[in-house]
Design a protein that fits this description.
This protein is mainly alpha-helical and about 90 residues long. The protein contains one helix and no strands. The longest helix has about 90 residues. It is rod-shaped, with a radius of gyration of 38 Å. The mean pLDDT is about 95.
């Protein structure tokens, strides 16, 4: 009888240990999935960052172009106004 009780306790402990191992395996799988998700998120964020850098470069180029066109417009406008004023006074 004492051996049976002892074997039952050992069996219960083994059952608890197997449950704990199963839970650990599940947690490990969850951690692996989370690490994959995190890596993919970082890759995606880096791609967005690269796109943002490209957009920023294009915006700077467009700003320079518009600024040059704006200056040219004012130069032409002032030159035209000067030519008209010169023709009116002569």
């Amino acid at each position: 009888m004492p051996d049976t009780a002892r074997l039952n306790r050992i069996e219960e402990k083994i059952d608890k240990m197997s449950e704990a191992i199963i839970q650990m395996a599940r947690m490990e799988a969850k951690i692996d999935n989370y690490e994959k998700y995190r890596d993919e998120s970082w890759k995606r964020m880096n791609r967005f960052s690269e796109k943002l850098d490209q957009i920023e470069k294009k915006v700077d180029d467009n700003h320079r172009t518009v600024s040059t066109i704006n200056r040219l417009f004012w130069v032409v406008l002032i030159a035209s106004a000067g030519a008209i004023a010169t023709n009116l006074w002569m």
